[in-house]
Amino acid sequence: MSRHSATDRKQWPTLTQVKRARKATLEKFFHDHNMYRKPLMEKRFEAIKSAQPLTSDDAVISPFRLQTLTLVDQLVVSLNALKMYDVAPTRRPFTRY
């Protein structure tokens, strides 16, 4: 998962919120994630439009929404840490005696 997609999940942590998004906003999201094929994009728009929540019970949705947002924050921190390892100069931890 990229940092970009992690922040997008924060933008739409529930089905209700992604269903409220404008088509142009979702299209930009797909383009930002290198998805340009119109037929596939239309299939995804239709899937979002026709998706039905498993429950509408706020006592179920609220804690899992909070858990999702927390996990996204943790992923962003982890991804940033991995980037630091990627750009850190490689040094040999031990030298010859």
How far from one another are the termini?
A: 42 Å
What fraction strand?
A: under 5%
Largest sheet: none
List the uncertain runs. none
Q: What is the molecular shape?
A: flat
Helix content: over 70%
Counted by DSSP, the helix tally is 5
What integer value in Å does the Rg equal? 19 Å
Please provide the count of β strands.
0
**How would you spell out the order of helices and strands?**
HHHHH
Residue-averaged pLDDT: 85
Structural class: mainly alpha
- Structural domain tally: 1
Attribute tags:
0% strand, 97 residues, mainly alpha
Brief synopsis:
The chain has helices at residues 3-11, 15-20, 23-32, 38-50, 58-87. The chain is mostly helical.
Task: Characterise the protein shown here.
The protein contains five helices and no strands. The chain is mainly alpha-helical and 97 residues long. The chain has one domain. Helix 1 packs antiparallel against helix 5. The mean pLDDT is 85.
List the helices and strands and how they pair.
Blueprint (H helix, E strand, L loop, with lengths): L2 H9 L3 H6 L2 H10 L5 H13 L7 H30 L10
